[in-house]
Each structure stands twice: as C-alpha cells, then as structure tokens.
Amino acid sequence: MATIRSRHNGASTTTATEEELQTSSSNNNNSKLGKGKGNQEKSDPMIYIIFISLLFDLLAFTIILPLLPSLLEYYRQNDTSGLYAVLTERVRWFQQLLGAPERYISVLFGGFLGSMFSFLQFVASPIVGGLSDYYGRKPVLLVCASGIALSYLIWACSSNFALFVLARFVGGISKGNISLCMSVITDVSSVKTRGRGMALVGVAFSLGFIVGPMIGALFAIFSDKSGGSWFVLPSLLAFGLAAGDLLVLACCLRETLPKEKRVKEISSALSYGLQLLNFSAIFRFAAIKNVPKKDIEALRSIGLIYFLYLFLYSGLEFTVTFLMYHKFGYTSMDQAKMFLTTGVIMTLLQGSVVRRLPEAKIKGYAIFSLYLIVPAFVLVGLAESSRLLYAGMILFAISTAFAVTCLTTLVSKYGNDDQKGSVLGIFRSLGALARALGPVVGSIAFWCVGSKITYIAGGLLLIYPALALQRVRI
C-alpha cells in the first residue's frame, strides 16, 4: 500500500513507496516459534522490529511532502546552480502541451520529481534484493538505511537545487530497504503468520502517511520562508528519524537469512541485478531459477496483474488532487480532511481485519479489493457533489487497505529460501515502474479528455486485473 501524498495549495506528489508489501514463508525452524492460546502461532519478534524501523523511515520520508511546493518556490527564487531554470522550461513545455492551467506547473514539476524517485526505486530494489540473498539481510539493510540518512543530511545542506535533486537521487537508490523489510518478514514467517506480518507493515505505512505529512504541514504553515534556509529544521528532523531507524536496525535486528541458505556466488547476485535492467526479464521473473514451472507462471501472472493495477491506480490517484482543486474548489484544508479520512480508514482496516485474514482467504480478499476499486473511481469521475466524491474515496480507501497487502502476501510464498529477496525485489520493482509511469499517463489523460472520461475509463479498465486474478491458479 504505499501511497505517498503531498497536499498543499492544490499541489500533489505521489511516489511509490508503496507502495507495495510482500513476504513469504521460510522454513519450519524459523517460522514455528511457539503456540499461543487456541493453538495460534506466535509472530517472530523481528516483525515488530521491522514495524518500528519502517515507521521511523516513513515518518522521515513523508515529512518533506507538504513542503515540496514551498521548496520549489524557494529554489525558483534562490537557485544558484541553474538546474531549476533548465528543468522548469522542460516542465513548462509539457504543461503547455497538455493545456494545463499555469497554476499547476508546480504540480507537474513535483510529479516528474516523484517519477524520478520511483524509477530509482525500480532500479535499486531488485539489485538490493539479490545482494541480500548473498550477503544477508542485515548488512544490506544497514547500507540502505545509511544512504537514506545521508540523503536527508544532503537536503539540510542543499543551498541550491542541484544539491536537493542529489538528495532525492541518493534517497531513491537507497529505498530498497522496503523490499528488504518484506524479505525479513518472509524469513521469519510461516504460512499462518505471514498475513499478520504484512498487515502490520501496512499499518506502519498508513501511520507514516498520516502523521508524517501532518508534521510537514506544520513546518509549511509556521516556517518563516522569508528568511534563509528555512527547510533546515524539518530536514534535520527527518535525519534524526532516519538515524533512529539505523540505530534500531543495528542494535535490535538479527540476521534472518542463515549462510547455508544464501546464494553461493556474488556473480549470481550481480548477474541477477543486470538482468533486471531488462524490462522483459522483470515481467518474466527470468532471474528466478530452479523452481517449478507452475510457480513461475503464477509469479508472472501476479506480477503482471500487480503492475497493471498500480499503473492505472497511481495515474488516477495522482490526478485526484487536480480534480478536487479544479472541479470542487477544495482548499488545502479540505484536501487534508479528505485524505485524513481515507488514511484513518486504511489504518483501522489493516490493523484489525487485514492482519487477521487466514491464508485460505487471501486470494478472495485480493479479488474483492480489485473489484471494489472499479466503482470507487467511477463514482469519483461522476461526482458533482462532495458527498459523492467522499463515497468514492471511502471505497478507494477500503480497496487500498486490502489490495497490495493481499497481492504481496500471495506472491511471497514463491521461490526457494535463497531467492526470497530476489522475488520480493522484482515484485517491488514492478510496482515502482508502474508508479513511475502511471502519474505521467494519468496527467495526460486528465488534461486531454477531461476528468470524467479519465476516471470512468480508468475504473472500467481496472476490471481486467480482478478478472485475471480470478483465473490464476495459486
């Protein structure tokens, strides 16, 4: 589920982070840690360490989102590198091509920055997953967490726009930590506890995307932007949270992939990463070897479904802010109320219902959630009043709470023990690629054919992933 949002003065940035939750069962020695009441199997404590780590990471990551419009304005006026002026002209050309109003140029600019971040995740996740299958989860996680902390430190020092872009670049290539966290849960989970672990990760995402932007919004409202580098304080707060995450991982996380279960040669991990620069190889899961043919077919089917779903979903979701601002005249506060409502619904569902889903019902709920997103976006497209818009967005929240968590739980059971990181890295890369492409295509459709046709057509196209999942044999 990882949707990352910025809502400020009609601007919106969506990246994946989410985006996108995965795991798989390990062996019986790691997964069956004891019995609780009613024969219920206990979750490994490492799942809760991952929850805390992700919460720190996501709080730090989402602080920046409400600040982006103000940051872009700051660099427009104060950039000494010349990069902002060059990129602005490129974005202005795209904005004029679409016929978008002048006031949305910062939204499109933020969208391109978000797409860059997601594309870097797309490149980094499978490589990081493959390396973790050789070196182990913990050391690679520590490297990723260190890179993320460094990105916030660069942001704090970013007196010009080139440094800010460098900070986003370093943060993007370090974001393989999300798929590694899923791999850790895979290592320590059994079939019975896998769904609980994934839902707990979903709760971390929801909490991060509710609390983090609220903190950022306070900085956006109360910071004195007439002064110098007003963004230093929020960037240092993000750095502090990232440092806390690094400390938690270094002190509390144990290695969950024993040496005897790792790949034997580093060349295997490197060749795997290079293969994944080939789009066709990613969709075919070509790097996953020595598994039954039916498992590969299932992986390919679920991967394609996941990509198509997130591609359509992210494109429509990205333009929702345009719709609210342009059609309904929503202020920043109105938008904040809307997304607070959807965030709370997702958190409650993931913390109560989703985490308790039995293994046998995961596919059914995944299908249900994919079908539910269809009327959600159709209602949003047809909405002429806030009441109907809220109805569509509430259905959107319910669907989102189940969809990605259930899909990633399904894919997580495939692959051998030394391939879990690779499977999860590929799956997350598909999501990152979808989120890198979806907002751009969604923006083009929105401004070329209008909001109503875009949302209704997009919603109806989302029927296909649901139908396809019904036919997959898992």
TrEMBL record:
Membrane-spanning segments: 47-68, 104-127, 197-222, 228-253, 303-326, 338-357, 364-383, 389-411, 453-469
InterPro entries: MFS, MFS_dom, MFS_trans_sf, Sugar_transporter_CS
Pfam families with a match to the protein in the record: MFS_1 (PF07690)
Subcellular locations according to the entry: Membrane
Gene3D superfamilies: MFS general substrate transporter like domains (1.20.1250.20)
Membrane topology: Multi-pass membrane protein
Keyword terms: Membrane, Transmembrane, Transmembrane helix, Transport
Biased composition (Low complexity): 24-33
Chief subcellular location: membrane
GO molecular function (one): transmembrane transporter activity
Annotated ranges, domain Major facilitator superfamily (MFS) profile: 46-474
GO cellular component, one term: brush border membrane
CDD domains: MFS_MFSD10
Region (Disordered) location: 1-39
Protein name: Major facilitator superfamily domain-containing protein 10
Organism expressing this protein natively: Drosophila kikkawai (Fruit fly)
Gene name per UniProt: rtet
